[in-house]
């Protein structure tokens, strides 16, 4: 005798399927990471990220304008810095005449309605290619905080909306919050890279910024991929220290961590669908092994279903285009 309950009834037509759909990804959920280079009229594809470019300010303004029309309103801007401008203390990160800070001012001037996020970490500007200050082969925590503080204030001064400390130094959220408040930037938000793992999925990003570590790895500051409960310690500290958003990074191999933070925090949880996750889908789609559009949508859906409120993703624009 067949059971009278037949789940297939709720799948029998497009209208019913849509009615019972539990999770939806919208352009409001997405933040689009962008790579900025110095100069004008530059558009250089990142070899390991087909469809993603390093853009000079003029072309980035156009890109943002196009995205706004598609409903993407939030952007995370990363600078690709030439080697000659890198040093031990990331001094270009707080030089207000440096192209990154000038571009941020220009972006906010032209698009005050756009939500602009910046990255707070030393690696793009560091001759050591590390997120923190290096001495005798070690990453020094508290010395790094001072540099991050200068960087954060310089970014806040450009009028950006959200700071994204991605460095994983201890105490940085509280340090930055305090400094921002003291300097009249109480309105600038902090999206903390809360559970950022020492991951193999970041390589294409390091190609894009030319920011790979010159020695060693990032295991003394980024988390061990084997650890779960440690993410709760990071979340607790970020919350106490005043973060406005928590983040899990990468996303796909860490869906359980996204759910863990969502269930244990009242703060919005962001997931970073990182460069390597993008590249894997693109590479397989270019070979004709996967349907790229379909897998993109399924990927974003899985991250949202896991509990992410917000997704940082290189697919943002493409996803928005498929909705039109
Ligand atoms: C560096 C930073 C990284 C990413 C964002 N900020 C790389 C790293 O920690 O080495 C990675 C993003 C991606 O892979 O898409 N502070």
From TrEMBL:
Catalytic reactions of this protein: 2 5-aminolevulinate = porphobilinogen + 2 H2O + H(+)
Annotated PANTHER family: DELTA-AMINOLEVULINIC ACID DEHYDRATASE (PTHR11458)
UniProt keyword terms in alphabetical order: Heme biosynthesis, Lyase, Porphyrin biosynthesis
Family: Belongs to the ALAD family.
PROSITE patterns for this protein: D_ALA_DEHYDRATASE (PS00169)
Domain of life: Bacteria
NCBIfam families, A to Z: PRK09283.1 (NF006762)
Key word Secreted present: no
GO terms for MF: porphobilinogen synthase activity
Top-level class of the enzyme under EC nomenclature: lyase
Assembly description: Homooctamer.
Source species: Chryseosolibacter indicus
Protein name: Delta-aminolevulinic acid dehydratase
Listed EC numbers: 4.2.1.24
